[in-house]
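Quarterly update from the structural biology core.
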Amino acid sequence: MTLQEQFDAAVAQSKELTKRPTNEELLKIYALFKQATEGDVSGERPGGFDFKAIAKFDAWAELKGKTVEQAKQEYVDFMATLVHHYK
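Predicted structure, tokenized:
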């Protein structure tokens, strides 16, 4: 199975969790997915009181410089851990 196939399967698994991961875990899922699919974060950091958007931006920005392949592999590995805990 190629890395892309593993990544696609992990994305599908993320939608089948029976329990909700913690906010920190959700941010990590989001950031790894964005890094794996879009690369480094772009645009300006949200301002004001949109704390959710700020947290998402910051989580993604922390992965700056990580390659698409690295992010996909980390996403696959992290989802395997979450599936074990939440499925």
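Residues 27 and 56 are 6 Å apart (CA to CA).
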